[in-house]
Structures are given as C-alpha cells and as structure tokens.
Amino acid sequence: MSRQLHSIAGGLRSMEAQSLKSKQTQDAQDLIASRVLAMTGVLQTTLETNELIALFARELSLFVEFDGIDYHFETLPIAVNLGRRHKHSCSYQLFVSGEELGKLKLYRRQPFKRAELELTENLLSGLLYPLRNALLYYRAVQSALIDPLTGVKNRRTMESAVQREIELSKRQARSLSLILLDIDHFKRINDELGHLCGDQALRAVAQQAENTIRNSDMLFRYGGEEFLIVLSGTDLEGTRMLAERIRQEIEKLDIYPGGGPQLSVSLGVTQLQQTDDTASLFDRVDKALYLAKNNGRNRVEVS
Q: What CATH class has 23-145?
C-alpha cells in the first residue's frame, strides 16, 4: 500500500469514522493536535537526519504499531533503516510547500488499518518542518566540505581527514597510504579547448577515480588538476595496484566528441611511516608524483 503525503502542517486530517460535530471526535482531534505539537518540540532538538527519524519512530510507536521504518532521499546520500521489514507496508512521499523531503516507509506483519493510516498522516505533519530543517543543515554542511565543480571532498576536508587518519593508523598499527593524481597536460586542454572543456576533464577524472576506489577510500580535490586518495588499511603494493587501475580506467575516457586530447594522469604513491607527520607524508607523495611526471607522464611511481 502506498500513500502520498503533502504538507499537512497547517491542518489535521479528520477521523472518518466519526462526525466532526461530536465531542468524542473533537476531543480526539484536540489530543492529536497537542501530541503533534509536543512531538514537533521533541523533533526540533536535533538537526541530524538519522537521529530525527529515530526520534519520530519512537514518538509514532506510542500510537501506531509497526516493526520497521525506512527513510531515504533519492538525490542525497541519506538513508535510514530501523527495525525489520515485513510483508505489509505503507509509504509516504513527503512534501512541504511544494518542496520534496524524501520518502518514508513503515513495515509490519499485518495490514495497516484505515484509522492507523490517518493517524500516521496526522503525526507526520509534526515531522515535516523539522525534517526540512535537517535537510537544509545537511546541505549547508556538505557545501562547506564538497568541491562544487567535481562533487568530491575539498581540500579543507582533506586536511582534517588526513590528520585524523594518521593518528588512527599509528594508534591502531594499521597501514595508511596516499595516491596523488595529476591530470597530464591540463594547461594545454584549457588553452586549446577552453576552460569549459577543462572543467569537463576535471569532472570526468574525479568520477572515474570515484568509481574505481573502494567505498572506504577517500577522494579529495587537492587543488587545480590534482586529486588525493587516502587509503586506510591498504599496504604499499595494494595502493600501487589501485593507482595503476585508476590510470588505466581514466585512459579509457573519451569525453570530447569529434576529437580532442586523450586524457591521461600521472600518479604518485606512498605509505605512512612511523616517523611521519602530515608534512613529511605529503612531501614524499609529492616527490612520487614528480617522478611520474618527470619520467614521461601517464604512469605510477612509488616513493
């Protein structure tokens, strides 16, 4: 069963089984309205989407029995899955003032009754505005961490992430490796084809690298045409092999219809040593990249 929910924050749905004129129905409506108001106050205590959905699930469970709840937003990497999925479900596409807020789905063993669905919709009205605030907060945080051109993490994020990974690697005695990638002859692309084509190359390289690395690896735009990949728990040889695979995948790209320069990249690889700090680690991976470019480009070098 699927039901679509638009913004109902301005008013509550009536309970169909009773007349609105009856005192019993009015009392029920007043009770729901007061509960929605109280629930909204609870939900406004957080701007974290995961925590918000968990709080809503707790509040909803006081009135409607369910075994699991899912929330996701298709255009954002946000997904919350709580409890268990069962055969019967009801889903709601959430909107407020015409703005899409994602999809929420409830599961349980037995079918949902009409009165339960109406009550759920009423209670969902208390979720809409806190959810919109949480999504606005998420986008604001992401915009501060993401390079707007390529969609990968930016240098500001990189600096704190690398420092954290170095500390964790030393504390837990695990491998940490870096790949520094540079697009070959990038200035020529800009000069001959224009900056729009240069931007296209940056996006294509970032996407191909993102598609090649593991989910646990971190890709950052280091600056200009350079990207950094941080690999936790990967030794030097494993990192070199991944760098070579990235090089090969990028070499396959054909992004300029009607002819244009063949994209290629040079990559430097290094591994954290016990005596390293951030500066020495970056210095060594930079030297490895210099070797790759100095030795003919479109290759991987290790330092």
A: alpha beta
CATH of domain 155-302: 3.30.70.270
Q: What is the DSSP string of 160-214?
A: HHHHHHHHHHHHHT--EEEEEEEETTHHHHHHHH-HHHHHHHHHHHHHHHHHHS-
Q: pLDDT tens digits for 166-196?
A: 999 999 999 999 999 999 999 999 998 899 9
Residue 196: which of 263, 256, 262, 152 has the closest Cα? 256
Say whether pTM exceeds 0.70.
no
Q: Is 23 helix (H, G, I), strand (E, B) or coil?
A: helix
201-237: pLDDT as tens digits: 999 999 999 999 999 999 999 999 999 999 999 999 9
Give one DSSP letter per residue of 35-96, joined into a string.
Answer: HHHHHHHHHTT---HHHHHHHHHHHHTTTS--SEEEEEETTTTEEEEEE---SEEEEEEEEE
Active site residue 225: yes
Domain ranges of the chain: 23-145, 155-302
Which entry of 118, 165, 225, 301 is annotated as an active-site residue? 225
